[in-house]
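Researcher: Last one for today. Full complex below.
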Amino acid sequence: MQDTQKKQVLLVGNPNVGKSTVFNTLCNKKQKTGNYAGVTVASHSGNYAYKNEEVEVVDLPGSYSIYPSSEDEAIFSKFLIDEQKNYAGVIYILEALSLKRGLLLFQQIQDLGVPMILVVNQIDQAERRGITIDIQKFSDALGIKIIQTNAKEQIGIEEIKEAVLNNEFLKTDKTSFEIPTQHKDFIQKLSSDKGLDNEYKAWISISSGVDVDKIESMKKGLSDSEAKNLVPKRLQVQETVRRYQNVDRILANVISKRPQFKELLTERLDKVLVHKFWGYVVFLLILLIIFQSVFFLAEYPMNWIDNFFAWLSAFTGEHLPEGPLNSLISNGIIPGLGGIMVFAPQIGILLYFLYLLEDSGYMARVIFLMDRFLRPFGLNGKSIVPLVSGTACAIPAVISTRNIENLKERLLTILVTPFMTCSARLPVYSIIIGLIISDGTFFGIQYKALVLLGMYLLGFMVALLSAAILKGFIKNQGKTYLVMDLPTYKKPLFAYDFKMVLGKVWEFITGAGKIIFIVSIIIWFLSYFGPKQSPNEVVATNVKLDHSYLAKMGKAIEPAIAPLGYDWKMGVGIITSFVAREVFVGTMSTLYSLDDDAPEGKVIDKMRHDVKPNGEKVFNFATGVSVLLFYAFAMQCVSTLAVVYRETKSWKWTGFQVVMMTGLAYFVSMIAYQILK
Amino acid sequence: MKEKGLHKLSGFPKNKMGKILGYDDDQMKMPSKIIEMGLLPETAFRILYQAPFNGPMYVEFGEEKSRIALREEEGSFIIVEELN
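Model: Here's the assembly. Have a good evening.
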């Protein structure tokens, strides 16, 4: 690459205007597009090269105004203002169907003196509505270059690159918002006192409440009623209303409308999808279809993967030279990796559905439908998105709480989301359910599927219940509200989402794979060696599993886990699971592969036949239920904890979450085992 | 009786055209998002749907037929009148 300074540009706009689609077509990089406010949860950046110029594109979270009302909008405003020196300009995306709303933020940024290019996306949609936009007049009125795009069809993308290359970002000198006359002198003075290059920046420092102490001196020389109205929020409202009046004036000259227009797809779909009754039926059906696919579609690839690893383990066991290395590879590493790979299809299918739902705009409808039902639990309709994505993984789910405006509702959502049945629990549930539930069917549905569905419901119920309890212990912070855009439905990007899913699944396999690889090796070492059995040994090698260091360690913690019905092997499994839940399967695979004289058998069969010293089966119904409950409730994921700490910025709440969840898990599993045994 | 045609947005009949007149917000409790999203005086609107048990309202408004979801609590800040 050439030694050129990378040019940085920002991608800015309201949520749901196709900003991320533009980003994806520009940068061709792995990144998530969403049609739901809040999918682009943090600022992502990507690169592209065009005619020997390297450009870095930063995709900021969507926002409606420079005044933030939620965490992701705060990230947006901070970046836009603080980094102004570092970027070449802003590419502002406007959706042709909601020009008015989009121009509010556009004008605010323009008044900050930021150089911009304006992109009007989805003009075809507006034309279908009978709306014609006179781009030339529009461009003259705003004093800016306008590019028309249809990002999904890749139309106009080349023009954006060309405009960036030629630095066609424009600033205007005249501001669209006139600072009210009674404040003008004060703002001018404040601006020069602070050495700001722009009066609007001084205005923002007052109206956003940053310079609260300045407000008292601003009241001097004002009438009593004017002084009383001098509150940041009032100033913001004043600004917004004036800007909209200005936008109306501009648009009146730019837009022409034919009197009739066709009913859009969105209007027809919403007759059913937000219906008082059918809306919920459809939502339930969609959930059912998702879970049905996760368990039945995934069965075939899962069997292939399982058989492949069993074969690979047997093959390496036979063909590698006899000795410790042979047993490490064929009994330790391969079954450990296989144990996790086998769940890739399920995770992939679940994620794919979630992406499609987000992309299509349906998630906003789910929020609309669920808000009333989540409120009694101290949650917001917007909490449904983290809760549903929590069934894939709690990490992105916790991050996606950033668009919940109310801090208490956001904290509650973060605290309870890890109760949702994430995909890392699936491997554990599948194995245990396979061991303790019989093969029968109930009205054509397998018992096993029903129990698994029950586990999902249990996670959801406990999330809600704990929110209802915890809401009494968290201070109210501000008013709760729901004011949310309902975007038009869009055809999801099937192929693109599929690529995204493959990426995510690969991340899961390699991420979990690395941990499992290391844990497998440690476990193998601890089980291959044991305390010396004859006086002339330092350590004993190739010991029977029962005499190994691992057994010693497991047995040391047995008293703590015995009330839950676990033997020392499960103890080892649970301890290693505190890194990540799915490690349990790898640990079990390794342990049971080491324990047998016929290593080529499937691990699950060995687990089924394992017995405690007293002849009782290790995995009987009572211990199985106890393990299921423990994994349902315990906080066993280091990565989630790290994200919770980052999002709450509080050790208190992060620690509380660990203690609450794991304590509940221990308690409930113990009660269940003691009753059922 | 109430002044002719004057209502709050919450409780306004469904599927009737209305127009926003202003806000009832002396305590300044109204989320500024309402105005930012474009629910401004003189804007025409129609409530299309409402979620059960007095859940959020689904409001279509403005020239561009934007759609917004808001709760009854938020709707009670907005003063509207019926359009014929």
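Residues 6-82 of chain B form a domain with the SH3 type barrels. fold (CATH 2.30.30.90). The interface with chain A takes residues 28-29, 31-38, 40-41, 48-56, 58, 62-71, 73-74 of chain B (CB under 8 Å).
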